[in-house]
Write a structure and sequence with these properties.
Blueprint lengths: L8 H14 L6 E5 L5 H9 L2 E6 L2 H7 L4 E4 L2 H4 L7 E5 L12 H6 L4 H12 L3 E7 L4 H10 L3 E10 L2 E9 L1
Parallel strand pairs: 1-2, 1-4, 2-3, 4-5
Antiparallel strand pairs: 5-7, 6-7
């Protein structure tokens, strides 16, 4: 069965943060990691010189193709960034409650996605980073890790939803 993460509050928070943080910089390359249905990818295509949507879900790769290049793979193993690029991710951030046995679970629960993406950022060193996470997940860890990697968080957006805050962090080197 095919599953695509549909746009929700975290999607729109990521879009607002990307527009605010990347718009003035106009990066030559933006990498949308975990592109899902391509909603963030579409916005990035209006801001950035080029966009690459990266996802492990084949349906997500197909959905994002109309807005830029698409790489259907795990970003840690398949994609080399550039130091002048920007990486954007509305990360799956909820603590796992079930086995990772379908695309829906992989798009919602953080099965080491955050750690893999932060490792990729550490190695590739993109100039700008926009990451969306939650206080139910690893929001404080993401902020602290970015700072340890030499990034300065210059903008934060929050949206309170029931029992969590969804947090979009914009950071630059």
């Amino acid at each position: 069965m095919t599953y695509l993460y549909g746009p929700a509050e975290d999607t729109w928070l990521t879009v607002r943060a990307a527009e605010r943080c990347l718009g003035p910089a106009k990066p030559k390359l933006c990498i949308d990691v975990g592109s899902g249905g391509g909603h963030v990818t579409r916005v990035l295509s209006e801001i950035c010189g080029a966009v690459v949507a990266v996802d492990v879900n084949p349906a997500a790769c197909r959905a994002s193709k109309s807005w830029g290049d698409s790489a259907c793979c795990d970003v840690l193993f398949c994609f080399v960034g550039r130091r002048d690029s920007a990486v954007v991710s509305n990360m799956p951030y909820l603590p796992p409650e079930e086995e990772a046995d379908d695309w829906e679970a992989l798009s919602i629960y953080d099965y080491y996605f955050t750690e893999k993406l932060l490792s990729w950022v550490a190695v590739q060193g993109p100039r700008l980073v926009v990451l969306t996470t939650s206080t139910l997940g690893l929001a404080d860890h993401v902020a602290a890790s970015l700072e340890l990697l030499g990034y300065r968080i210059f903008h934060e957006e929050r949206s309170h939803m029931f029992f969590e805050d969804i947090v979009a962090l914009c950071a630059q080197r």
